[in-house]
Amino acid sequence: MAAADFTDIGIVDLDLKKTTWSRVHSSMRTLYLGLSREPDLAWIRFFHEERESRIVIKRHGLWIEDGYIVFDCLLPDVESHHLPDFRASIDYANRKSRELVATHREQSEQQRRSTRAEQRRLAELRARIRGAGSSSEVPALAAAPEAVIETMPAELPDAANVADGRDDFASKRNEWRARFRAALTTRAKEPDRGND
Hints:
This protein has 196 residues and is α+β, with helices and mostly antiparallel strands. The protein is built from four helices and five strands.
């Protein structure tokens, strides 16, 4: 899969206004090489990872900030040593970033496919559940209403009986609570006979 979302980063400029004397040595300069865009943290990590895999003489200080590669150098060494060194690390960081973007895109697509498949399974399950409820009950009513009616109770309790049942339950519950409290009170008043 092509990583179309990633745009390669390259060196596009040397910022002369930012060039300054190096703190490493008075004969050296600190140069700011402008990048085509500001890199993200993953790209910077890949850049340093590649640099740390090689030993190059004449490396001094280097850091990346605000879309610049900043480094300390002797001016005659820039084209012969530093630029080839940087370009090797940039190529590696671009390649690894493209791979990372492609991997993330593939994982996102797999997640989307998995989510869609799960939603489809849930929708099918829901349809079967709804179909099972309607197919076993509604058609039975339509096909043989007399048979369904015969299975119903002859008489439904009226609202007054239901209300009396609730009142009866509440009165029995209150009676049992009163008995329990009385038993606890009696037990608390009895002397402890185990110590006699």
